[in-house]
Amino acid sequence: MIFAAMKKTSTSALAGYAAILFSMLLWGLSFVWTKHLLNSNFPVFTIVTVRLSIASLVFVSFFKWRGLLEKIRREDLKDFVLLSFFEPFLYFIGENFGLKYVDASFAAVIIALIPILVSVTMFFVESVPIRWEFILGAAISLVGVGLLSVNPDGAIGISVKGVLLLCVALVAAVGYSVLLNRLVNKYRPLTVTTYQNLIAIPFYLPFMLAFDMKVWPSLAWDATNIFCLVCLAILCSAGAYMLYSYSVKQLTVTKVSVFTNLIPIVTLLVAAAIGQETFSNLKLLGIVVVVAGVMFSQTKIRKRSEIKDC
Fold first, then answer.
1. In a domain? residue 234
2. CA-to-CA distance for 200 and 213, rounded, in angstroms?
3. What's residue 66's pLDDT?
4. Residue 246, domain extent
5. Which pLDDT value is given to residue 172?
6. Among 131, 135, 192, 252, which is 20 to 30 Å from 225 by CA?
7. According to the model, what pLDDT value does residue 204 have?
């Protein structure tokens, strides 16, 4: 009955769904590549600054040469700066440093609240109606993320500092979503993503220079590490964000936000395939619940009166 009641999906919407699914795939893979670099003793600020620099150099050069990069209007410059400040900068600070004080399982559940908070914020800021199907679907996927994140011993590590840092990430994600929704209606997704990465570099650079430079001489710049950095830059910092922006343009930021709960599934499957994670029946149940929640959040169930009119 649910799927029979759904409206026929347009070609542009299908393209939007394809874009968001592929971006989630890339972001899921990003955790595997980042983990490899961290295991190779690459500092966090170095990883982010280098990947943003590579992405900006390649995309600014290519899109400028092709004449595809639009010029930012003066009145929108503040929104672009805030967009970059919220994400990747502030979101990265909150999520990555929050993980130092809480278990990854607890952090995953907190981050999974983003779709619901985005929906509520868009209602108050942009007067976007809140659909009960979306809230219920997002809540179901939140339960699935919880199942994916359960530790074998059932223990949960929580600290006030960690929770506060994760709340910073939540606020950053919501602020980013609101601004992105505005900007993709004015500029091409490639323009938004290119300037987002370029403007974010000055936010990170002082931290890299202050904390990471002392370990640079000991870093192993071998082929594998460079490959991971290039993949993170081209595929994740540029490609995935561009696809995400495109999907927001086609589907709205509220619909798209719930798909971020698919990222742990991609990471789990890839990590299990290469031996970094173990698979269990509980995690399989979590995958099913997350996917079911995401699918339900995209439905629109007609009222009886609407069905009769058909």
1. yes
2. 19
3. 85
4. 11-303
5. 95
6. 192
7. 95
Model pLDDT, residue 235: 95
Asked whether residue 189 is assigned to any structural domain, the reply reads yes
Chain segment 270-306, per-residue pLDDT in tens: 877 877 667 778 888 988 999 999 999 888 765 544 4
Q: What is the DSSP string of the chain?
A: -TTTTSPPPPHHHHHHHHHHHHHHHHHHHHHHHHHHHHHTT--HHHHHHHHHHHHHHHHHHHHHHTT--PPPPGGGHHHHHHHHIIIIIIHHHHHHHHTTTS-HHHHHHHHTTHHHHHHHHHHHHH-PPPPHHHHHHHHHHHHHHHHHT--TT------HHHHHHHHHHHHHHHHHHHHHHHHTTTS-HHHHHHHHHHHHHHHHHHHHHHHTGGGGGG----HHHHHHHHHIIIIIIIIIHHHHHHHHHHH-HHHHHGGGGGHHHHHHHHHHHTTSS---HHHHHHHHHHHHHHHHHT--PPPHHHHHH-
Any idea which residue has 């985005």 for tokens?
A: 118
In a domain? residue 3 = no
Q: What is the pLDDT of residue 305?
A: 44
- For residue 297, being part of any structural domain is answered with yes
Structurally, how many domains does the chain consist of?
1
Amino acid at residue number 66: R
Q: What is the pLDDT of residue 301?
A: 62
